[in-house]
Each structure stands twice: as C-alpha cells, then as structure tokens.
Amino acid sequence: MLLVIGITIFIGLMATDNFDATDSDYGSAKEEIMWAEEYDDDSFSSNVSEVFASVTSIPFASPIMSFVMTFLTIGISFTFLDVIRKGREAELSFRQSFRLFNGNDFVPVLLINILTYIFRYLWSLLFIIPGIVKIYSYSQANFIYKDLAATRDTRSMGATSFITESRDLMNGHKERLFWLDVSFLGWYLLGLLTLGIGFLWINPYVNATKAAFYDDLSKGKFLEAVVEEDDEIWTNF
C-alpha cells in the first residue's frame, strides 16, 4: 500500500507541467519545503487529495496503478501459498511482494494475465454470465504457473497452457469458488464502512484463503517432478 501511494505521488509530481528549472520555480519549491516542515494535518490531507486527483486525470495512470496492484497481489498470494505449505520455513518478508518483478516470472505472468483478460472480455461479449464463468475457469492459472515453474522448465510452454490447465482443474469446482467469494461480501461491506481502512486486513485474508483453496484443490498435482526417461540403449544386435 505504501508503495502504491509513493508511486501515485511520484506520477502526480512528474505530471505537473508547471515545474521548470527556473529560479522562480526553485524559489517556489523552497517555499514548499519550508511549508512541509510546519504543515498541519488539514493542509497535508488537502494537498495529498490534490495529488491523487491530478493522478486520476493523467491518461493511462489508472491502468498503470491497476497493473502494479495486480502483480503485487499475485506475489503476495504466492507467498501465502508458500506459508500454507511450508509453515515457518517459508520466507515471509516484504520483498516477497515484489517476487514477480524479476527476469524469470515477469513475462510469463504478464502474458497469462493479458490473455486471461482478453479471453474473459471476449466471452463477456456474448452475455455477462459466460464472462463470469470464465473468470472462475481461469482463476488458478497463476498458481499453476508457480507450481510448474518450480519443478520444470516452463520456457517452452505457452501462456495458454496454464490457462487450459486452470480450466481443467476448475471443472466441477467453479461453484465452490463462487460461494467462497460470496462469503467475503460481509467483509467487503465492513471494509467500506471503515472508509477502506479495513481492507488492510481483509485483502490479505482473502488472498490467503484463495491460496488455501488452490492448495486443497490441486493437492500438489502440479508439483510432481517430470521424470525424463533415458533413451533405450541397445546392447544386443
């Protein structure tokens, strides 16, 4: 959350067109620094609100923030899955939230989510219900990638492979996940009543529950190592 706020403020500051490298601008910047040293809560809140308002008006700002939040959420969900499986042996640190921003997992997860979004959108063009069904069908693709990448080389596998595996895995179980989501409605309402503060606890709870759902559903199916059979050696001619 702090990262998102920081990125948001950074984008807002970078998007300010009136800040040029002139003496008057440096003077105004100096005044802002002096003001920051003795601000009160009301003025600080109003300025933060102005920054967020300017960010929302920037083209593509919202998709960028949504993209960052998606990757952070997936990384946190992966960490929860490790904790469920390994307990205290799992690495539980703040940097684990950024585990997808590396050279190995970033592109595959990005492609999985782009294709998932496209497929869901195309299905939703038929009617709303098919789009919702496909949301649940493709919901485990990221977890499946995580498990398969841990046991084998997935570079030769296309993003559609993980989506297909998710669709097969969720066959007959989409209703279970649907009712699980319904059970969170009360928590979401509570989060709204607390002006969003409650989501600091609700979102991790939901992510951990979804990770536990996948672990129970897959039962380690995608963690099984691939046994490569050696070519038969002919000794008799």
Task: Write a compact overview of the structure shown.
By secondary structure, the protein is mainly α. It contains eleven helices and no strands.
How many DSSP E strands?
0
Structural class: mainly alpha
- Poorly predicted runs are 1-49, 229-237
| Sequence of secondary-structure elements | HHHHHHHHHHH
Give the end-to-end Cα distance, rounded to a whole number of Å: 69 Å
Radius of gyration: 23 Å
Determine the mean pLDDT: 76
Beta-strand residue percentage: under 5%
Instruction: Estimate percent helicity.
Output: 55-70%
Shape: globular
* Count of runs of 4 or more consecutive helical residues: 11
Q: What can be said about the biggest beta sheet?
A: none
Structural overview:
With 237 residues, this protein is mainly alpha-helical. The chain is 68% helix and 0% strand. The protein has eleven helices and no strands. It has helices spanning 2-14, 23-37, 41-56, 61-86, 106-126, 128-137, 141-151, 159-169, 174-182, 185-193, 199-218. Helix 1 packs antiparallel against helix 4 and helix 7 crosses helix 8. The chain is globular and about 45 Å long. The N and C termini lie far apart (69 Å).
